[in-house]
Automatic annotation (TrEMBL):
Its cofactor is pyridoxal 5'-phosphate. The keyword Transferase applies. Coiled coil: none annotated. This is cysteine desulfurase. It comes from the Bacteria. It catalyses: (sulfur carrier)-H + L-cysteine = (sulfur carrier)-SH + L-alanine. Belongs to the class-V pyridoxal-phosphate-dependent aminotransferase family. Csd subfamily. It comes from Blautia segnis.
Length: 388
């Protein structure tokens, strides 16, 4: 099998990840602050925070909190942050994942803070002009300046990498909370949380960070008010039933220590391998993929051809549904890709692919040139068959 669906979850993982998870599962169970039966596993959480802080440039890495993934993290933030006075809008880009859009549209956020969508180009790019125009319209309609901007770093549909310096400068200039989704970029593209001066950042562990499913978390800057999404046992101050002075806990219940241990192993693997080297290899493979597809008649490619592009590409075959193309690739060639809207419906409106979506090809550090060549051969044969 040739696996080109790393935008959904990365596979394979480094052997060190499997070994770390297995060692944790077969060793003596331990939960942080629940008795300290195993000091090595007890320290896994703090060590993982430290390594993630190094990789993502978060100096205050103690402000990283673990969850089950990006969806829980985003729900925690969007349902718990203080978005200012009632009526102040929240800006979210057209490229966002449903882990952003659904909490905004279905929770109490929308009732008190109208959601304004910042339009993107057909490649997924968010421009400063689009941000300015949306902020201006929201201010005129509501009579109040928006309070927050939510933007993903790298599109999970087109792979477009946003200009985060521009977005961060815009947020600071307009006194907006900056909430960034780095689920598709963490581990394969440089992330600079401190440089962006981000107020909150969300990540998942099972994509390019090379951890297992059910892991992820968020970072929130010191001084930002956030009510927790969940309440429960923390193993400390158990006599205190009501949090005092906003001293909330964001990691309640039994932590996923095997998952966090695997995430630690994946993060260490990236740091040891070198993020620059990982990015260069993936850029080379994406160039090979893009240039190869350009030579095939009957294929539509979406996204940026070069430069601001992560390890994700969307495409379609003329005259063939994306779902049918994915089935043919899997059943006829043993190649796994992803078809559909990829949980990001609004960007497809900009791309003109809202009816059926796209075929998404996404690579990882473990993808080889032979995998790309095999995909190009299959794509060429499928495109040619459609012309008969």
């Amino acid at each position: 099998m040739i696996y080109l669906n790393n935008g959904a979850t990365s596979w394979p993982k480094p052997s060190c990840v499997y070994e770390a998870v297995q060692a944790c599962l077969t060793g003596t169970p331990a939960s942080q602050f629940r008795g300290g039966s195993d000091i090595l596993k007890k320290d896994a959480e703090e060590l993982c925070r430290e390594k993630l802080g190094k990789l993502l440039n978060i100096s205050d890495y103690h402000r990283i909190f673990f969850t089950s993934g990006a969806t829980e993290s985003m729900n925690t933030l969007l349902c718990g942050l203080n978005f200012g006075e009632e009526g102040q809008a929240v800006l979210a880009t057209q490229t966002e994942h449903n882990s952003v859009l659904r909490p905004l549209m279905n929770q109490s956020v929308k009732n008190t803070h109208p959601v304004w969508i910042v339009p993107c180009g057909n490649d997924g790019a968010i421009t400063e002009q689009a941000l300015e125009n949306t902020l201006k319209k929201a201010t005129e309609i509501t009579g109040k300046k928006p309070s927050a901007l939510i933007i993903n770093h790298c599109s999970n549909v087109t792979g477009y990498i946003q200009d985060m310096k521009m977005a961060a400068d815009f947020a600071r200039k307009n006194n907006l909370l900056l909430i960034t989704d780095i689920s598709q970029s963490a581990g394969c593209i440089p992330v600079d949380v401190d440089g962006w001066n981000a107020d909150a950042v969300v990540f998942t562990g099972h994509k390019s960070l090379l951890g297992i499913q059910g892991t992820g978390g968020f970072y929130i800057r010191e001084g930002i008010s956030l009510k927790p999404l969940k309440y429960g046992g923390t193993g400390r101050n158990s006599q205190q039933l009501i949090y005092e002075n906003g001293d909330y806990e964001y990691e309640v219940g039994t932590q996923n220590i095997p998952g966090i241990t695997g995430l630690l192993a994946g993060t260490e693997y990236i740091l040891q391998t070198g993020l620059d080297w990982i990015q260069k290899k993936e850029e080379m493979l994406m160039d090979l993929l893009y240039e190869g597809l350009k030579k095939i008649d009957g294929i539509q490619i979406y996204g940026s051809p070069k430069g601001r592009r992560g390890p994700v590409l969307s495409m379609n075959f003329d005259g063939l549904k994306a779902s049918d193309a994915a089935y043919i690739l899997e059943s006829g060639y043993g190649i796994t890709v992803r078809a559909g809207l990829h949980c990001s419906p609004l960007i497809h409106q900009a791309m003109g692919t809202e009816n059926g979506g796209t075929v998404r090809v996404s690579i990882s550090w473990f993808t080889g040139e032979k995998d790309i060549q095999a995909f190009l051969t299959a794509a060429g044969q499928i495109a040619a068959s459609l012309k008969r």
